Amino acid sequence: MSQTKLPKVKDIMNLKGKRVVLRLDFNVPIKNGKIVETMRIDRAMPTVEYLIKKKARIIILSHIGKDASSSLKPIVRYLSKTINVGFVPDFRTEEAHAVVDGLAEGGVVVFENLRLDEREEENNPEFAKYLASFGDVYVNDAFAVSHRSHASVVGITKFLPSYIGFLIEDEIKHLSLALKPKHPFLFILGGAKFETKMPLMKKFLKIADHVFVGGILANDFFKDKGLETGKSVVDKHSINLTPLLKNGKIILPSDVVVRTGLDKKSVSKKVADVLPTDNIVDVGPDTIQNLVPLLKKMKLIVWNGPLGFYEEGFDKGTIALLKAIAGTRATSIIGGGNTAVIVDKIGLGEKLSFVSTGGGATLDYLADGKLPGIDAIIKCKKRRVSLE
After folding, report:
1. Is residue 125's pLDDT more than 90?
2. Which structural domain range is residue 88 located in?
3. By C-alpha distance, which of 203, 197, 214, 213 is closest to 181?
């Protein structure tokens, strides 16, 4: 996707006093009412600050959690540390319109979780029209949900002149490097959901020089090779992996960390030594060490998905590989989601070329080079160069 075709927030003229409906992704992890990781919020702030500087009136839309039970209140508290921001607990009321009408130039208000209304995920046209009624222009800077055909992502573009923000512009700029890569090029794929990631693997087996497979995905390969996987998680799929292994580009872990025995003690062992009672939870240290010479030869490294069960504390393999990549001269693009959480946890972001805010959106963009939310912006028929 050419960036020159993308209508950007800087293309909008005369923003002063205009109502900007700004879709952001504030779907960040919250525990006991406190935000665990703020990367997505922080990366969205340049667009917010630009609109404030241009004296627009800003209405922020977002969702949080899987349903309407989660609240954006903790995010509003976080934002209030750096900007003046209001909050509307229910955007389906007259109060919401009154708050927006009363916004000063440069003012910001956040509407409560969009998933309060089930029409959001249905991409209901009447709901999209209702959301559009709050604004004069729409800006999408929620890359991480731009693979979703939701009302606030796709539907709203039919009713307002529509543009992308700085975050999406930055995501496309960097992720596009993987679509026409420099060589040698290493693609790293971890995590789970084999059926979801299969298109990505097939694509990069064609364009990458090497593909390293870790996480639950590696267990699938072990099983197909006839190796013991014990009690490890294995995705159920109907794909024959043997032809992929014959490709010659795939690299699998040589050792793994397993939980074994009644005490669930974790130990590292060779893949061939895994027992029926073992549960594979991470890649082993030898695997990472063996990858280091290869990493140093690469010009481009793209990675999506952790190598172990990091939520349960098995993140050593992922952290070791991140540190090894940070020590190379390669351009490094790290896919979002769980991998990004680990990058933020260890404070390694500045030593890597780019860390995506997306999870599924990153996967879909790498696979197809396009996303529904971005396509909707490009196809928007209501856009004008000036909003006079």
Report:
1. yes
2. 3-171+370-379
3. 203
